[in-house]
Amino acid sequence: MERVHRRLSRLVTPAAAPYWQIAPLAGVFAVFFLLPLAITVIVSFWRYTEYSIIPAMVGDNYVSIFAGCLAELPGLCVTFKTYLSTLKFCVLVWLVTLLLGFTVAYFLAFHVRSLTWQIVLFLLCTIPFWTSNVIRMISWVPLLGRNGLVNAIVVGSGVAPRPLEWLLFSDFAVVLAFVHLYTMFMIVPIFNSMTRIDRALLEAARDAGASAWQAVWNVVVPLSKPGLVIGSIFVITLVMGDYVTIGVMGGQQIASVGKVIQVELSYLQFPLAAANAVILLGAVLAIIWTMTRLVDLRREL
Amino acid sequence: MAQRRPASFYLLALVFTLFVLFLYGPMLTIIVLSFQGPTGGLTFPMHGVSTHWFSRLWGGLGVVDIWAAFGRSLKLGAVVMVLTVVISLLAGYAFRRRFRGSAFVFYTAVASLIVPSIIVSLGIAVEFRLLDACIRWAAGAVGLTALVDGFTTSAGTFTSGLGAHLTWTLPFGLLIIFAVFNRFDRRYEEAARDLGATPRQTFRHVVLPLIAPSLVGIALFGFTLSWDEASRSSQALGADQNTLPLELTGLTTTVTNPEIYALGTVTTGVSFAVILVSLLLIRGLRRRPS
Fold this sequence. Notes:
The complex is a heterodimer of chains A (about 300) and B (about 290).
Chain A: H1 2-11, H2 17-43, E1 47-48, E2 53-54, H3 60-65, H4 78-111, H5 115-126, H6 133-138, H7 141-144, H8 149-156, H9 171-195, H10 199-207, H11 212-223, H12 225-240, H13 244-249, H14 257-266, H15 270-292, H16 297-300
Antiparallel strand pairs in A: 1-2
Chain B: H1 7-33, H2 52-58, H3 66-95, H4 102-114, H5 117-141, H6 145-150, H7 157-183, H8 187-194, H9 199-227, H10 244-254, H11 259-287
Helix pairs in contact in B: 2-11, 3-7, 3-9, 4-7, 7-9, 8-9, 9-11
């Protein structure tokens, strides 16, 4: 009894406080993130029938994903094609959002002088982030559709004889929507890095004879690296796993790794979907690992 | 401060303006088009101005019970909001001190932010299927046949759905609370303690008023991220338990009239209302005399 009491009283000492304070957060991540990931890895080695999943320890799912991939070389099998297509979107979206995000953040951080205006303009950029992604995708339809505003202008002004078909439900529309949705994930971390840059460094660069471009390239860019890397990780991982944007903006016609997983899930092929998820996770982790070589994440956050 | 602006300022200002137009232009388009006249279609021109499509929306969208999804999303968003604030605040307190495993918890939170949502969703879906199997097996083992027959699934809006949303909102909450406590001046707390305040009084009368605006910020993230969440909960909700964004995703391929714009306007309206209230609240709390 004495011992139980002593144990209990140790639980409420100040030294124990951080543990019960972190418990809810740790619990949520354990039950809804770590355990599901572990289960995904395990189930990827199971077998399945049309209506059930069966515990096993087989590599069948992985084999079927890469079936014929070696034989078809140098041609590309479906899996490689899908990854290549997804990577293509990643690179395109990454380049555009990086350039656009850097430009916008640079303007806000170095050209807007009053703090109030900085906050107002910054909020202006972030407010759409708090509204629905799906709505923001749909909102391109009246602009880019066959009878949309852009085509009305293009045809009306005689630039093209008939409506452009590649504006909507195309690769172009997918990239446009990604840029529309995710540039904000670049702006915020880059802006955050830029506000920490000592303005005296820029003046020193100018005094030492650097042109405006040289100052940006040799002072601002290296010092914004943490923001650039964090933003890049966000954008690349969001695009790598996407299926909603590619589905809606691609007219459900464009393949992506995320979409493959979603289709397999709709047929209840959980082990196969899990194997695909493990491969996707591996690919994403490899990309992040490469990027974190460039910057110490924990220090920056 | 009255230096002349360099030429690059005007160029960058132009880029920024175009970017803002790019952000808001499409959104404005569907808000305008949702007031399309009864004979109008999905694109311009406007055939008159009316609230026809809103009243059609009010009556429901055919087979899809859109208002049930609306209500579910609203309730789920509120619960996610409250939990995100409370759990993040507690975690923020924990991280102010050293504890074993803190680095692991931190990296798990960051990982939860960047692991593709479809993978998390898949994992939760399989987890709950296995849980269902276990429940059925356990109920059968102890002879509760009524439970075995009546049981469908443990997955639902406020079990698997809630968990899926929290894995998305909590990392944001945690990062914000980190920023808050990094800037927090501990001397306020020390002063309160020196004056004889209990830990509870220190929290209630010193810490809480100082961090209240940031907590409103976390609440804003909690609600809006949940209200708009589509990919993480897509596989992790029970049958016929779809949230509004999921119904919307489905509707993009089936609805061919401005009803969907009306729905978009209403959804965006809710988001804007929440953002506006939050921002006003943050301003009000900042200005409150101490």
